[in-house]
Each structure stands twice: as structure tokens, then as C-alpha cells.
Amino acid sequence: MEDLPFTLTALREAYADGLRPEDVVREAFRRLDAVTDPGIFIHEAREAALAEARALGASAGLPLWGIPFAVKDNIDVTGMPTTAACPDFEYRAESDAFAVARLKAAGAICLGKTNLDQFATGLVGVRTPYPVPRNAVDPDIVPGGSSSGSAVAVAHGIVAFALGTDTAGSGRVPAALNNIVGLKPTLGALSSTGVVPACRTLDTISVFAFTVSDAWEVFEAAAAYDAADPYSRLLPAPVASPPPPAVRIAVPDAATLETFGDGVQADHFRATIARLQTGGAVVKEIDFEPFYAVARMLYEGAWLAERVVAVGDRLVEAPQTLHPTTRAILEPGLGLTAVDAFGGLYRLKELQRRCEELVQDADVICVPTIPTFVTMAEITADPIGANSQLGTYTNFVNLLDMCGIAVPAGTRTDGRPGSVTLLARKGRDALAAAVAAKVEDGLLGATGGSRPAASAKVSDVEADEIAVAVCG
Amino acid sequence: MEDLPFTLTALREAYADGLRPEDVVREAFRRLDAVTDPGIFIHEAREAALAEARALGASAGLPLWGIPFAVKDNIDVTGMPTTAACPDFEYRAESDAFAVARLKAAGAICLGKTNLDQFATGLVGVRTPYPVPRNAVDPDIVPGGSSSGSAVAVAHGIVAFALGTDTAGSGRVPAALNNIVGLKPTLGALSSTGVVPACRTLDTISVFAFTVSDAWEVFEAAAAYDAADPYSRLLPAPVASPPPPAVRIAVPDAATLETFGDGVQADHFRATIARLQTGGAVVKEIDFEPFYAVARMLYEGAWLAERVVAVGDRLVEAPQTLHPTTRAILEPGLGLTAVDAFGGLYRLKELQRRCEELVQDADVICVPTIPTFVTMAEITADPIGANSQLGTYTNFVNLLDMCGIAVPAGTRTDGRPGSVTLLARKGRDALAAAVAAKVEDGLLGATGGSRPAASAKVSDVEADEIAVAVCG
Question: Of the four listed, A88, A161, B9, B91, which is most buried by Cβ atoms within 10 Å?
């Protein structure tokens, strides 16, 4: 039991062999206790989870029956507090977020609420008044954020999957830093009902798991149109599909590949691209500057005002209840005018056109998930600058209405986890996932467990069996 | 020649009988001189138009060969001044707007630039430092705006069509007030390159003509994707199509049909709907309040800031160069914050969802184009309030990303022109036009000429000949 990897396949096999859901819940909390990290969960639901496990009944074909999961603490779970890592903001949720309700209905068991950069503002995971979660792979580097606790919980094998949110990269950066998969769906594919907003026009729930296949299954179970969420979109139901035989991949060219001097990261990225080419991919190098220009708009431009809207009167009336870094980031948003906002929308529209032209011949874009690593010492010395670096390859994605999936791509030569992200146009989540499954490699999170052979669910389908069913 | 109606069909027949384009240009300016209204054109291009006419050569199948047209003075025409009705803003255009270039390439001849509410802000046509154009049907009522000169020029038969722009209703309200057709395409169908913006996210060029068929032909010739315009959209090329046999039409219910006490207008609208029902349409009454709520956002909400962006530093640095009413409308936009702007976007998104739900079973919406008439005396007494009334059925359309066409629907019992607008989802311009062609009725503009039988181009196609080719 202690060696049981919390992948969907392994858990299902164990259940088939007689394991009970309450055994899994107990083992999950034993693992949590064993890592002795009080920063992972803001709220642990030990008793509630055990009660849910006992009440599950027979599996009856439920796709996530008995699967333990964690929920970022800016997403509502009935009866649990929601804090967004701001204790003064805390309220007790009276109902499940739409996506959480779907996962519970599919048989999954929620173990609690995880830590985050306050109000999901940050990519480092240290901007919290609660204890900072320790990176599961290497405690000297930041855990990553804003979905810090969710990523660390998965990386330790405490849960089989966890929900994060992703506006600027909060569902991808911590995946890279903790050696797991982070799936950031197309905006509007997962309902935002019951989610504390960060930037309402750019927010989405995201999914952390050990493997592409597991993340995809969770996404399939959670995705549905929600008439009550104005930002929910009528998209085709997600259907796994194989990549095209000679998938066309755009990558940053040599002049614009940015790793802030981290040659190991650059080498690892190039080696990963070479693997994809060996597998039949057609790679095209592109000028990445327009994407960086979009990325800079997220915190330097009008969208900062969306975060101000999300925090509300607190910023003016009770600023002392905010984390000092969060407050410092948000305050300039108060001075932005509506003229600035529309100016930003126009500038974005122009850059969108340039980016579209650069990738019009590509099926997906492949980038390093992070340009380099940030240590705890570095983020303490420079709380904002070091954070910005981490968003190099993530900040532009939601502004460009793309979907993406961060995936472990084997260990770097220095032993740190390697990660790349596959990006695709809105609605092409299945395509991004299929290419990601081709490249995923290495051990499971921080557990030392071996990666299972790729699941038929995402990548072993032959190209002539299923047509690509999800389109933009 | 003096009796020749400037419809496409009549002009083509006359050309086939030996008439020359320069004869038509001379006749057009003779008609302009005859109406003795110095407010219609800001720039008359008599010599340039004659030169163009002489240089046309053989028709060679050009769809608009020898067709005279006018261009609203916020759209560039090579070599002519562009003023947006602000003399201090004037510049000489070095190239044609994208849409103008397409129309010229199709053989049309531009006679000049027409008057407008300054910076296209207004629905009345009187907010101009130039002489106010007189309404072509009745000089006691306002000409309508902002595309005042374009509508009046068509209504008098001076040109066969004219370009306007339409953000809040500037391409539809003056059509209703001057008894002509006003086609407002789906946003992004006609390029905005070479157009002075009003609200960049909501602007479109529009087309005035005597008949639905003529307006449609002009739209077909002008529409094309423009990679240089970030707001241009990849839409299927417009193709005329018949309405479905039992077209489903949503109309405001009795409680929310707003005519500001004008019972004649309400009666005319109901009679028009009854005609459509007789023709096989299935009519459903809906609560129109959510549409009015959207309409109110255009001038009371964040979008005012877009108009401030469009006017630029002028509002602060040279406010005396603005029309007093325009200035009074724009100034509050300076005080709007980015938080207001995003708050407006969120509110719109919620209202969009409610509106979509109300019309999900309908093919088109039919509304009166204007709720009632505004006299010159009334607009002088209340320059802003009377203007707002005119936008009742137009202000919400671009915010909801719909297309529409205003069409004469026969004379009201008091002799004033009756007009309804058919609205449809984005991309369904052909559907709206096909229903409009079923209802168009009455004499041509202010000319006294008879409306020709509906042209095969839009409405005489049998339902089983062509499938509806343009979809949302």
C-alpha cells in the first residue's frame, strides 16, 4: 500500500483487487503526515473524506470512483472554508464549484483545500500568510504557484490529481517545478462557477496529475457547459485523439529562446525537441518576441485592473489584510484608466494577429514550461522580479486564447526536472495532450515511482482509428 | 435621365442602352444642386468623379461599373480630405480605405465625402460644425446620424449607395429617418483600415441603398478579410440565400415594446409583423428588457472610454475644437477607471448570456428601427436625451455581436416612413437580408420613385435552390 502509486490505473487495479476507498484516504493522509509539510493544505478534510469514501457504494462505472484529489483554496468545496490564502477573506462554501461537483459525481473524493499565492497572484508559491509549501523535488527551489499546494500534493503522491487555477501560468509553472503534469484547458471549457476570480476574462481551472493520461481523464470528467457562468463556452466535449502523423511544431528560434543564462535548460529543451523530431514531428523555429510582448501585458498592462476588481474594496479599505507583495503588485492597478484598458485591448488585438501569423502553419507550439529555476533565496531577495521570469512562457497563453499542457520531459543533466509545455489554439486541447503524451518522460513527481507506459486514453490510439474531433 | 432611379438595376439597363458614366456623374451633381442642401457633402469631388468616370473603360463584368457612391467623411478616399466633421482634425488621405478600394476596383465612382455627427458620436445628424443636412423626407425631423449626409444623399437619389459607419446605430437610424435601406454587417466583415475609429471594438462600415438587393450587392463587393486590420474576421464570403420557409422571428413583447408614446409607430410595427406572419413567419414575443440594458451600457458605461481613445489628446488639449455636445458627451469618459472598464465587460458578458437564451429558438429578431421620430425643435431643446431615444433598438446590436439591416416597411398612417430592422447572429447577414427583402415596401427614399420587384439576388431564390451558406 505504501508503494502504491496514486495513478488512476494503479488505483483502479488495487480497487479491483479489493482495496477500499477509505484505505486509500487513510494512506493519503499518512503520506501527508510523512512529508511533514504544514504548508501544503490550508484545510485538511480528514473526517469528511473518510465519510465520503465509506459512502461511495459500488463503483457502478463511475470514471473516478475512489480517486483522491485536492482542491486549490480559491475553488469552493461544500462545507469547507475558502480563503484564497487571505484569512480575512475566508467564507464557508455552501455548495461545490461546478467542476468540483462533477468530479465528486464521477466518484472522486476531496481530501481538502490547498495553499496558493494569495488571490492566485504569483507564480512562486511563497506569497501566502500560511506556511510556504516546500517544493516536493528540491526544497531549495520555490514550490511554484500560484497553485503551490495542489502541485506539491500530487508530486508527493498524496492525491492522484488536484485542481489548480491558471491565469498567468499558475497551473503550469508549479507542474514544472514539481515534476508533474499541468493541464490548462481552453478558456471556458471548465466552469468558473464557485471559483474566486483573479482576472475573470482569463481565468480557468487547471488539472495536476502524474501523467498526461490521468490529467486528461480528469479534464474529461470535469468539462461541461455551465449556463450560469457567462464565461463558459459551448465547446465540443473533450475527446482524446492521436496527433497527426507529422505534427508541425513551432518553437522559439535561437535568438529568442530565453533561459536567463540557464544553458542546461536550453540544452534540455533542444534535446526534447530533437526527440519529437525523431518521432516524426516537423519543427519550425519562429521569432518569439511577439509572444513575449503579449506576456508583458499581463502584469504591466490593463489586466492588472481585473485583479483589482477581484480583490474588491479590500485593496483600499483593508490593505493590511493582504500579503505585502500582493498588495504592492495590485496597487498600481487602482490608477489605471478605462482609456488604458481599451488601449490594452487594442494592443493585444494587434499582437494576437502577429502571433497568429507566426504559427498559422503549426499544429502546436512547444516551449520550456519555465525558462529557469528560482531558488527560495532568490525570491526572498527579489520578490517580484524573480517571479516575473517564471512567467516567460506562460503569461501570454490565456491572452492569446490558447490551451496548453505542461509535461515532465525527463531529468536535466544536473538532476533537476525538465518540463516542456505544448500549446494549441482554443479547443484543441486533445491535440496538445496527444503531443505531450509523446514526450512525457521521467519518474513520477517526487515519489521515485516509474512512469507507466503511455495510456491508450491519450496516445496509443492509432492515427487512423479516431479523427481529431476537437477543433478551434 | 432626370427620372432615372439610381438603383443598380436601372443604372445597368441605362448603361446597356448607351448611357455613359460621365452622364451619370453629371446627373448626380445636378440632383445635388437641385436639392440645395449644403449640408450633405463636406467634400464634393466633381472633377475627380468625372475623371474617374471617363477613365473607367469598358465594363468587363465589373459588378459596380459606373455606379455613383458617396463616402461618410470618417472613411478615407485617396486625395480627399477626411475630417470626421471636425475641421481641426482634417487630413488628406493618401490611400483609400480597404473597403473603398474594393468598391472602386468593382467599378464604382466616388462623388465625395458626406457629413456626419462629429467623430460619429450621435444618432441625430445635427452635431456638426458644417451646415446640418436636411432630412430628405421631412425637413422638420432630424436627418439622423451619425451617417447623416450618406443617408440623405441616397434618399434624394444623388448616389446609388453610400458608405456609413455604425457603432451605436449610425448606419440604421438615418436609414429609417430617410426611408432607405441601411445594412450593418457583422463586425469584422468589412475592414476598418482607413476608417476613423469611434469605438474600435464595436465599429463597422455600413451600406445605405434604396433596396435590400442593392445594399447586399455592395456589401458582397466590399467584404473581404484584411490581414492589416486586427478586427477583421475570417468569415465566409457573403452569399445571398433565401430565408427558411417558416422563419422564426423574435419581437419585443407588448410590455417591453418601447415607442415613447408613439402609437402610430407601434401600430405600424405590429402591422409589419402581421405581414411577416401572413408570409409564413413564426413570431415569438420576448421580454426585451435585457437588450435595453445592454443598449444603455454603450453611452453610460465603459465604452465611452473607447470614444475618448478615438478622439485622443484633443479632448484635453484642444477641447474647443470639438462640437459642444460631442465634448459634453465625451468628457465623463476621462474619469472612468480600468476597473470600471472590466466591470462593464463582465456585466456585458452576463447580459449577453441572458439575451442569447431569450432568442436561442429564433432565426432573427425584428424591431422598429427607431422607437419614434425626433424633430429639429426637440433636438435643439434636448440635445442628448432626444438622441438617446433614437438608439433604443440599435445601441445593443454591436455589443451583442449581431448583424442587422434596416428596411423601409411602407408608410405609416400619418405619412411618415415606416422602418423595421432585422437582426441576426454574427455571420448570418444573408439571413437578415433575406427576411428584410420579404418586408421591404414603399417608395424609394424621398424620390417618389417606385420600388422595383424584389431582385433575384436576395429574395427570389427558391428555398430549395441554395442552402443557407453563411452561419455563425
Answer: A161
